[in-house]
Amino acid sequence: MLHPAASVIRNVRVSDGSAVDIRIADGVIASVEPATPQAPSADAGDTGLEIDGRGMLALPGLVNAHAHVDKSWWGLPWQSYGGEGGTDGRIRHERARRDELGIPSVATTAHVLEQFVRHGTTSIRTHVDVDLGVAQRGIEAVREAVAAYDGALQVQIVAFPQDGVLRRPGVIDLLDEAAAAGADFIGGLDPATIDRDPVGQLDALFRVAADRGVGIDLHLHDPAELGAFQIELIIDRTERFGLAGRVNLAHGFALAQVGASHRRDLLQAMAALDITMTTVAPLRLPQLPLHELDAAGVRFGFGTDGIRDLWSPYGTGDLLGIAWQYARSSSLVRDDDLRRVVDIATGGSAPFAGLPVGRIEAGSRADIILVDAENPMDALVRTPERELVVGNGRVLFQR
Length: 399
Hints:
Elements: E1 6-13, E2 19-25, E3 28-34, E4 49-52, E5 57-60, E6 62-67, H1 86-97, H2 106-118, E7 121-129, H3 137-147, E8 154-160, H4 171-180, E9 185-189, H5 198-212, E10 215-220, H6 224-240, E11 247-251, H7 260-272, E12 276-279, H8 290-296, E13 300-302, H9 319-329, H10 335-345, E14 368-371, H11 376-382, E15 386-391, E16 394-398
Parallel strand pairs: 1-4, 6-7, 7-8, 8-9, 9-10, 10-11, 11-12, 12-13
Antiparallel strand pairs: 1-2, 2-3, 5-14, 14-15, 15-16
C-alpha cells in the first residue's frame, strides 16, 4: 500500500557529510538545501508529508539490475531443495514443480516486490520466464503486481527463455510476441551448452531484438574460453545488428576466468559498443574486476538473481547485501572503492532500469533511502536496516 507523497525530508546527511533538507515536488527532487532547525509537521496537507530524517544518511534508491520476481516461493510454506544439480537439472526441477506451487502468480510476485522495497530497492530489471508452459502468463502477473505501486516502483521486463530458445520449437515466436507486446528486452541462456548452437541462438535473438526495437539481456554462465568465444559472438552481432547500448551480459563468469590480455581485449570491445554487465556476486567464483571494468568503461550493475525459489532457498531481497558480497569477495577495503560499489548499487545503476543516473540532487527522480550509518562506506560494510524508502516521491516503507 502506498503512503502519501513526501514534500520535505529534513535533517539528513548526504555522502559528503553535510546536513540537508531534501524538497520533493511531483516525484522529483526539487532542491537540496542546508538543513534548517524548523520542526517538521506530521502531515503538510495537500503538499505531502514532512519527514524528520533524524540526521540519518540519505542514499539514492537501490537498483536491482538482475532479478527474477516471477518465480519465488517466498510467502508459501518452506520448499525443500530437490532435483538434480547444474543449470539444466535445475530447469527440469523447476518445470516439474512450479504449477503445483502456483508459479508464476500475482501474489508471489507481490511478495517478492515487497521484500525488495523494504530493503530499499526502487528500480528493478527482472527476467520473466517465457516458455511453452507459461507463455506470457508470467509477464502478465508481474505487470499486475507492479501496477499496484502506481509508478513509484520502476520495473523493466526481460522476456526470458529459461528452458532454452532453439531446443524448444516455438519459444522464439513467444519471445517475438513478448517484444511486440511491450517487453523491454528479450533474454537468452548459455547458447553453447543449453541450445548447443551458439550461432543459431544468438542470430535468432538479435533478429527479433532488431526487428522489434528492444534490447537483449543474456545469461551466460559458460566458463573460460567457451564463454569468451560466445562473448565475441555477442560483440560481433551487437555491431552488425545496430544494437549498441542495448545489450547486457548477465553473469559473464568467463571474463574473470580468461587471461588478463584476453579480458582486456573483450572489455575494450564491449565498451566500444556500450555492452553492459550485471553480476549477482557469486561467492565461489572469481568476481568481475572492478578496476578493469571501470578502466575500460564497461558499465555494470548488481542483482539479487532469484530468491527463495526452486533453484535455491537463499536470498533476502537486499541488494545492498549483494553489493557487500561483491566488495568482500573482491577484497575491496579502500574508501574510494567502497564508495564506488555503493554508487553502482544505487544511482549509478539507474540506467539499468531505464532511468537517468540517480543522485541526491535537484532534478533527479525522488528515489531515496535513509539508513543509520556514518557514511556510504559504513552503510556498505554494515548493511543496516532501511529506515525509510521513498520511490518517485512516495513513501514505500517506513520503520
